[in-house]
Automatic annotation (TrEMBL):
Name this protein carries in UniProt: Oligopeptidase B
GO molecular function: serine-type endopeptidase activity
Keyword Transport set for record: no
Membership in a protein family: Belongs to the peptidase S9A family.
Gene3D superfamilies, alphabetized: alpha/beta hydrolase (3.40.50.1820), Prolyl oligopeptidase, N-terminal domain (2.130.10.120)
Superkingdom, natural source: Bacteria
PANTHER family linked to this entry: PROLYL ENDOPEPTIDASE-LIKE (PTHR11757:SF19), PROTEASE FAMILY S9A OLIGOPEPTIDASE (PTHR11757)
Location of the Peptidase S9 prolyl oligopeptidase catalytic domain: 471-684
Stored SUPFAM superfamilies: alpha/beta-Hydrolases, Peptidase/esterase 'gauge' domain
Length: 699
């Protein structure tokens, strides 16, 4: 086999029989990562992709340099106050990973940051990702938590991308890393109030956090105490500390149901108290206010309502903000003198302030499309609210909101170098009409003056009630400045329009997600916005890409599917895999329900590849991904080659990364530059910047 021709995957008959339906899956063997033939096939695919995209090396390098040149490589975040310290992170030019730091606090306003983005005077480095990573191909931090008294740091690291971390502790007084080392933990973790004890979770074979342990710092890991074990395979376990530092919160939740237990944080060896027993379909969470709890829940309230509860009887809830059909309550943050509610209305996010003494009000923002959310606010007693703001034309910005003056104070906007001017770009909101008459919002950003119709990249996700809100991207400028329009289809299955929007795009209504997306693409063409359209999505959005390509292959000039969940039925049929039992609330249970099996089989991309002409497809995956296994896109590409015409169909596998791809920032920029150069090549866009960019027909 040479790199001039696409690899041909061997066919090994493997029969799947469920509910009387027998299916032969000739590429099922690719799930075996230890099979030498599997690795050989993935490497052959990589070689072929590298060969046929060799002409993209120069444009890819150009775009990488554009991303790099627009980024202030040496930079630091706005410091956040926690007791006697200001905490921040910074990056250094030429280094892949961030550095976590702090300086002693002196006053209520953050320390002045130099324009060069360098370290602040008196800086103490807590964690240097570059030193920890060394020469490793992959590196990630799973948790980094300073003890309430500021004397110790708990941190965890992953060097493979499989999201199993090793937990360690650092003495911030002496700078020593303590001998404690606990392998195989999950994300997160929480200190007790006195900083002597750390709580952490571990995962089972399906990568589900299911056990909570208590570790005494300085003691042996094999003496750690099992605090809680969740035996229901649909539920995950998490642990947190309230902002008041009064209570530990043991959160147990599935996709649709939750249960909370609380414990006095000053008594880490005590017993957690159940707030309310789980009730299928009811989600709730707590935060501690000065004289009780705030409870956000959906018991009889589809879009959630906010209630209060007494400390001595937290299961008794009294409504504070009643349910509204037009407003989805997302989160609540309790402070000593006020409460902050994060919400969603009309496809946009918002922030409501509820003073303890005074009338509630909402913060106003200037742009028609934007995303606003509370930021890092660890202090319980504060007169300011830290929040983040961005739009499709405004770089990420950090504000303090002065509660007394009711004034937004801009602390920092992410620098975009190279002469970037937000006035050169414009954002728009369009509405497509779905097959059933539902109006679907679309967010659009373009360089001002770009002639229409223009080549377009249309992005979509549409699962888990996750919203793809308007946001800025430095890398995206390389598309916009070449006359390409970027759009996001806010399709059902996401959460942009409230909980009902999600409910109408899951389980046996999942096909709404795919038909909504196709309707958005067709609307953008019919309304004069788009010429050729490249579509892009990742993970569950990769499922969307595969399903949309099956549904309307002639609509798209190309498809980018990143870590795509394209073999959905086979995965959800296998309860030993991570994306199975916990996912039945999202997709349905095809293993035990024949109707769900038939429905999933009718849309799962791998199951429905037709002998039709498909657009060019670029599938990108990672060998160590524990959420969407590499074999899904590998099987999909193999079946497309064997069944369909058109293409080409390309598979690129990162052989040392996880679900998020390569870990270093320069490495991730190079990967993004490659993807963007492939998109531009498929759209026929020449290497000309600015609105005068010319486009050649896709051949």
């Amino acid at each position: 086999m040479t790199t001039d021709t696409p690899p041909v995957a061997k066919r090994v008959a493997s029969e799947r029989v469920h509910h009387g339906d027998a299916v032969v899956d000739e590429y099922a063997w690719l799930i075996n990562k230890d099979d030498p033939d599997t690795v050989a096939y993935l490497e052959a695919e990589n070689a072929y992709t590298e060969h046929v995209t060799a002409h993209l090396d120069q444009p890819s390098d150009t775009i990488f340099q554009e991303i790099k040149n627009r980024t202030q490589e040496t930079d630091l975040s706005v410091p956040t106050r926690k007791r006697n310290w200001w905490y921040y992170s910074r990056t250094v030019e030429g280094k892949q990973y961030g550095i976590q730091c702090r300086v002693a606090a002196d006053g209520e306003t953050p320390p002045v940051m130099g324009e060069d983005g360098g370290p602040l005077p008196g800086e103490q480095v807590l964690l240097d990702g570059n030193e920890l990573a060394g020469e490793a191909d992959f590196f990630a931090v799973g948790t980094s938590v300073v003890s309430p008294d500021g004397t110790k740091l708990a941190f965890s690291t992953d060097f493979k991308g499989d999201e199993r971390f090793t937990l360690r502790f650092k003495d911030l007084v002496t700078g020593e890393t303590l001998p404690d080392a606990i392998p195989g933990i999950s994300y997160g973790g929480t200190w007790s109030a006195d900083g002597t004890t750390f709580f952490y979770t571990v995962v089972d074979d399906a990568w589900r956090p299911y056990r909570l342990y208590r570790h005494t710092v300085g003691g042996p890991a094999d003496s750690d105490v099992l605090v809680y074990e969740e035996n229901d395979e649909r539920f995950w376990v998490g642990i947190g500390l309230t902002r008041s530092e009064r209570y530990l919160m043991l959160n147990v939740g599935s996709k649709i149901t939750s249960e909370v237990r609380i414990l006095d944080a000053a008594d880490p060896a005590g017993e957690f108290e159940l707030v309310r027993p789980r009730k299928t379909g009811v989600e709730y969470g707590l935060d501690h206010a000065e004289d009780g709890f705030l409870v956000l829940h959906n018991d009889g309230a589809e879009n959630f309502e906010l209630a209060t509860a007494p400390v001595d009887d937290p299961g008794v809830w009294t409504p504070l903000i009643a349910h509204r059909e037009d407003t989805r309550l997302l989160d609540v943050d309790a402070f000593a003198t006020h409460t902050v509610v994060h919400f969603r209305r009309d496809g946009l996010t918002g922030i409501r302030i509820m003073p303890r003494d005074g009338e509630p009000y909402e913060i106003e923002f200037p742009e028609p499309l934007y995303t606003a959310e509370p930021g890092g606010n660890p202090e319980f007693h504060t007169a300011r609210l830290r929040l983040g703001y961005t739009s499709m034309v405004t770089p990420p910005s950090v504000y303090d909101y002065d509660l007394a003056a009711r004034e937004l104070i801009l602390l920092k906007q992410r620098p975009v170098l190279g002469g970037f001017d937000p006035a050169d770009y414009e954002q728009h909101r369009e509405w497509a009409t779905a097959e059933d008459g539902t109006r679907v919002p679309i967010s659009i950003v373009t360089r001002r003056g770009t002639p229409r119709p223009a080549p377009m990249v249309l992005y979509g996700y549409g699962s888990y009630e996750m919203s793809v809100d308007p946001a800025f991207s430095v890398a995206r400028l390389s598309l916009l400045d070449r006359g390409v329009i970027f759009a996001v289809a806010h399709i059902r299955g996401g959460g942009e329009m409230g909980r009902r929007w999600y409910e109408e795009g899951k389980l046996t209504r999942k096909k709404n997600t795919f038909s909504d997306f196709v309707a958005c693409a067709r609307h953008l063409k019919a309304s004069g916005w788009a010429g050729d359209v490249i579509v892009r999505g990742g993970s569950a959005g990769g499922l969307l890409m595969g399903a949309a390509a099956n549904l309307a292959p002639g609509e798209f000039a190309g498809v980018v599917a990143e870590v795509p969940f394209v073999d959905a039925l086979n995965t959800i049929l296998d309860p030993s895999l991570p994306l199975t039992v916990i996912e039945w609330d999202e997709w349905g249970d095809p293993l035990h329900n024949a109707d769900v099996y038939a429905y999933m089989k009718s849309y799962s991309p791998y199951e429905n590849v037709e002998p039709a002409t498909y657009p060019p497809i670029l599938a990108i995956t990672s060998l160590n991904d524990t959420r969407v296994f590499y074999h899904e896109p590998a099987k999909w590409i193999a079946r497309l080659r064997a069944t369909a015409s058109g293409g080409p169909f390309l598979l690129k596998t990162q052989m040392g990364a996880g679900h998020g791809g390569r870990s270093g920032r320069y490495d991730s920029w190079r990967e993004e530059a490659f993807t963007l150069s492939w998109i531009l090549d498929r759209l026929g866009v020449r290497e000309v910047t600015g609105p005068e960019a010319t486009v050649e027909p896709v051949g």
